[in-house]
Write a structure and sequence with these properties.
Belongs to the short-chain dehydrogenases/reductases (SDR) family. The protein has a seven-stranded parallel sheet, with helices on both faces. With about 250 residues, the protein is an alpha/beta fold. The protein has helices at about 15-25, 40-50, 65-80, 105-135, 155-175, 200-210, 220-230; strands spanning about 5-10, 30-35, 55-60, 85-90, 135-140, 180-185, 240-245.
Length: about 250
């Protein structure tokens, strides 16, 4: 198993993306620690992992609460013996479908502020332990896309660009400690769209239509890519993004 003996923290572990990564990590032997603001979805994912023979624990916390995140990271490292993988896939609270010229300032800035704060807090919490053990992988999700895909996405594109900038800086600073920092770029995962979302089918179709393979990334694709990025098979990959957009992103 590719992640046997590794300990992984997934912020937003009760969501579709976080759950997919957690199940894939556990399948490959990792002990997963699911963190999020709501207990029920975390427990559902943990129950699935345990039913499949994996190891999963949950914790209710807000990734914007630095004290809580630090305490949780300390608890994980103390209980498990190491903190090897950190993945942040929390929701950013972005507003889409509204032109920037008609958008409220707070709606535009919310995802930017959330992304920067949560990325900083969770990466720093993990880095403290990874620097001591001289190893570890910090994963981000989303990544920047081509300019023409930013229409009516509000502050989301700016938020993703901010994450990429932070990822590059973290990779430079943490590389000497053996820590890798990688982004997974999907171009959109239709399965992760809320079931009650207005225009869901149309949005899913547009995501697939923008690809070269005429299909978008699936949750299984995301999980498999996350496992690869976190494993020793990707030992020489850092400071960059792994593109799983099925050709939607060419830059």
């Amino acid at each position: 198993m590719l992640l046997n003996g590794r300990n992984a923290v997934i912020y937003g572990g009760g969501g579709s993306i976080g759950g997919a990564a957690a199940r894939a990590f556990a399948r490959e032997g990792a002990r997963v620690f699911l963190a999020g603001r709501h207990a029920e979805p975390l427990q559902e994912v943990a129950a699935e992992i345990r039913a499949a023979g994996g190891l999963a624990e949950t914790a209710v916390l807000d990734a914007l609460n630095q004290e809580a995140v630090n305490e949780h990271a300390d608890d994980v490292a103390a209980a498990a013996g190491s903190l090897d993988i950190s993945l942040n896939v929390i929701q950013h609270g972005d507003v889409q479908g509204t032109p920037m010229a008609a958008m409220y300032l707070e709606d535009y800035l919310r995802p930017v502020s959330t992304a920067v704060q949560a990325t900083f807090i969770t990466a720093q919490a993990a880095a403290r332990h990874m620097m001591e053990q001289k190893s570890g992988v910090i994963l981000a999700f989303g990544g920047s896309g081509t300019e023409d895909r930013g229409q009516y996405l509000g502050g989301l594109v700016t938020a993703l660009e901010a994450i990429e900038s932070m990822r590059r800086q973290l990779a430079v600073e943490l590389g000497p400690f053996g820590i890798r920092v990688v982004t997974l770029r999907s171009g959109g995962v239709p399965e992760s769209l809320p079931a009650a979302m207005e225009g869901r089918e149309g949005t899913a179709g547009s995501i697939a239509a923008a690809t070269l393979l005429n299909r978008a990334a699936t949750l299984e694709d995301v999980g498999n890519a996350a496992v690869f990025a976190a494993s020793d098979m990707a030992a020489s990959i850092t400071g960059t993004a792994i593109n799983i957009s099925a050709g939607a992103m060419l830059d």
